[in-house]
């Protein structure tokens, strides 16, 4: 599962494969250098015994 990222300026979301194309961590849309990583909540399986 790939992590998602969100730009701190234009708030667009993008995958980490778009992030790897650019040198350093920058928004591929506006070039802003503050990026938030969005982690999807993991689904835990709870067994009721
Ligand atoms: Zn941006």
From TrEMBL:
This is DNA-directed RNA polymerase subunit Rpo12. The lineage of its organism: Archaea, Thermoproteota, Thermoprotei, Sulfolobales, Sulfolobaceae. GO terms for molecular function: DNA binding; DNA-directed RNA polymerase activity; zinc ion binding. GO terms for biological process: DNA-templated transcription. Belongs to the archaeal Rpo12/eukaryotic RPC10 RNA polymerase subunit family. It catalyses: RNA(n) + a ribonucleoside 5'-triphosphate = RNA(n+1) + diphosphate. It comes from Acidianus brierleyi. One of its GO terms (cellular component) is cytoplasm. DNA-dependent RNA polymerase (RNAP) catalyzes the transcription of DNA into RNA using the four ribonucleoside triphosphates as substrates. It is found in: Cytoplasm. NCBIfam families: PRK00398.1-1 (NF001604). Its main location: cytoplasm. It is an enzyme of class 2 (transferase).
């Amino acid at each position: 599962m790939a992590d998602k990222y969100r730009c701190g300026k234009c708030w667009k979301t993008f995958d980490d494969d778009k992030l790897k194309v650019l040198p350093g961590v920058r928004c591929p849309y506006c070039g802003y250098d503050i990026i938030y990583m969005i982690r999807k909540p993991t689904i835990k399986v709870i067994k009721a015994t």
